[in-house]
Automatic annotation (TrEMBL):
Organism phylogeny: Bacteria, Pseudomonadati, Pseudomonadota, Alphaproteobacteria, Hyphomicrobiales
Family, per entry: Belongs to the TPP enzyme family.
PANTHER family on file: ACETOLACTATE SYNTHASE CATALYTIC SUBUNIT, MITOCHONDRIAL, THIAMINE PYROPHOSPHATE ENZYMES
Domain Thiamine pyrophosphate enzyme central: 200-334
Protein name: Thiamine pyrophosphate-binding protein
Species of the source: Ciceribacter sichuanensis
Length: 545
């Protein structure tokens, strides 16, 4: 019985929203608050969902992406009305193309004044229509059900962002008595090796003499790596991956040929191998991150079998067969019966692996190659590494040997700049026990430099490695290859070490390999973030990839 002088707690709609999010595994929210979402932020705190203040809404969305990959759970972006949500458009578009299960909740002007009030008012749903899977407005009577529906849509393959509008009046209203909709128990029946789809694919495999596997990010996220490796070994099939799929099998394995999609020098070695293959299994693969050179890479497509959890929308190539099924159980079923199939008797994959190693090995004592190699030595196999868009990303993604999946994070489909730092923040929040490195170019860091304040305030001991070549090197290379002058690509010499100190971290500029290695080692013991700025000439990228 409630004492007469104590009022029973009122369950607000914001509480129903927050508790439903928490029940579905959301533990963190990222964003910038505004007057329209203060009740929601309060409800999140009460429900145990930690709100993390970012400096820009796009960065907040990408922080959520980093946390989603590392945790395997949906994540939350909170924005205020109008300019807050508009600021987040890049980050939400990134979430769509990177398959992030992102819930976006934006404040909205109350319905009672919406028809006459124009300050900061735009049509949120129309603005986001091309870049979200769905958009709804939360109402008091159905708040929990709407949130549960949004999460179900966001986490259904292909995963992606879902938008919810919530007005301040509705957020503060007393909610209905039943205010929580928990997630359902999801049962996933096993796929037997005598399933007709498995039998059909096995029949194709049985006639293949040069099978090849092309694996993508979804194979990594589905934890299908062990199954995929068993299948590859049974077939003697070399394994190519997208950049985000790196590590789905250990890249030290003889059958691993690394990431593909953005390096012309790698393409020159691997596209002929694909053309020689008589069967290509594209497993959890989305060509969204591939370059134009991979258009119709499998010829007429009759030798290509796509195996995905959801059909992917693209026109990059055509497949003779598509299998839509849970990846790991389906690959397990194939591997059981695929033993004894010969593959590549002429040894071409071995020669391709050796050729790749030769192309991306380095001789200079200092420069981007040496920086990547030293960073790999320091990071080992357990750390998480994020990398920004630019020339350094292409080189690092080719040279980096990922021994586990989901440890090299990047914006690979949308390729947005300034992604590495927020990805690292999200990854570090989701898994604080791991060491996290953010690898950025000077252009990317200058674009999103305010998030150093987020790193400071979150007390994250990130190690930030900056490739400072004083240019937008990748664009400069493209200009040069087209015979054009370098216009709009030169950057001034920012003192990033001083900037890091100004943001409360440790910063140092280095120009030798020994100094870089020493600073990487020292950063292990630091409780604040460490920014190591590696200075070299952009000419070091000439012919690198």
């Amino acid at each position: 019985m409630t004492p007469r002088n104590i009022l029973p707690a009122v369950v607000r709609v914001a509480d129903s929203v927050a508790e439903t999010l928490a029940a579905h595994g959301v533990t963190d929210a990222f964003g910038m608050p505004g007057g329209e979402v203060v009740t929601l932020v309060d409800g999140l705190e009460k429900a145990g969902v930690t709100f993390h203040l970012a400096r820009h809404e796009t960065a907040a969305a990408i922080m959520a992406a980093g946390a989603a990959v590392v945790s395997g759970r949906p994540q939350l972006l909170v924005t205020t009305v109008g300019p807050g949500l508009a600021n987040a458009v890049n980050g939400i578009a990134d979430a769509l193309q990177e398959r992030v299960p992102l819930i976006v909740i934006s404040g909205i002007v109350d319905r009672s004044t919406r028809g006459r009030y124009t300050h900061q008012v735009i049509d949120h749903a129309r603005l986001l229509a091309p870049i979200v899977k769905a958009s709804f407005e939360i109402e008091a009577e159905s708040a929990a059900s709407t949130v549960a529906r949004a999460i179900a849509i966001a986490t259904t393959a292909p995963m992606g962002p879902v938008h919810l509008d919530l007005s301040p009046t509705v957020a503060a209203m007393a909610g209905p008595e039943r205010h929580l909709v928990p997630p359902p128990a999801i049962l996933r029946p096993a796929i037997r090796f005598d399933d007709p789809a498995v039998v059909t694919v096995l029949e194709r495999i049985s006639h293949a003499e040069r099978p090849l596997i092309l694996a993508g990010f979804e194979a990594s996220r589905a934890a299908a790596g062990t199954s995929l490796l068993s299948l590859a070994e049974a077939l003697g099939a070399p394994v190519l991956t997208t950049y985000k799929g790196k590590g789905v099998i250990p890249e030290s394995h003889p059958l691993a040929l690394g990431g593909v999609g953005l390096s012309p020098r790698a393409d020159d070695i691997l596209l002929p191998l694909c053309q020689r293959a008589d069967l290509i299994l594209a497993i959890g693969y989305d060509p969204i991150e591939m370059r134009l050179g991979w258009l119709d890479f499998a010829g007429d497509g009759m030798k290509l079998i796509e195996i995905t959890e959801a059909a992917v929308d693209h026109g990059m190539h055509h497949a003779g067969m598509q299998v839509v099924a849970p990846l790991k159980p389906f690959i397990d079923a194939l591997a059981i019966k695929a033993n004894g199939v010969p593959g590549w008797a002429d040894g071409e994959p071995v020669a391709a692996r050796a050729a790749l190693a030769g192309v991306f090995s380095s001789a200079p004592a200092w420069g981007p190659h040496a920086i990547v190699e030293a960073l790999q030595e320091e990071a080992g196999d357990a750390a998480t590494v994020t990398v920004d868009s630019g020339a350094h990303r292409i080189l690092l993604s080719q040279k980096w040997l990922a021994q586990r999946p989901l440890v090299l994070l990047q914006s690979a489909g949308f390729c947005t700049m300034a992604a590495a730092l927020p990805l690292a923040i999200g990854a570090a929040i989701a898994a604080p026990e791991r060491r996290v490195f953010a690898v950025m170019g000077d252009g990317g860091l200058e674009m999103g430099i305010g998030e150093l304040a987020t790193v400071r305030d979150q007390k994250l001991p990130l190690t930030i490695v900056v490739f400072q070549d004083r240019s937008l090197a990748l664009i400069a290379l493209k200009q040069a290859s087209a015979g054009l002058q370098p216009i709009g690509v030169e950057l001034g010499l920012t003192d990033f070490a001083a900037v890091a100190h100004g943001f409360g971290g440790y910063g140092i500029n280095v120009e030798t390999l020994d100094d870089f290695r020493n600073e990487l080692a020292a950063a292990r013991e630091r409780r604040c973030f460490s920014l190591i700025c590696c200075r070299f000439d952009a000419a070091a990228y000439a012919g690198a990839f």
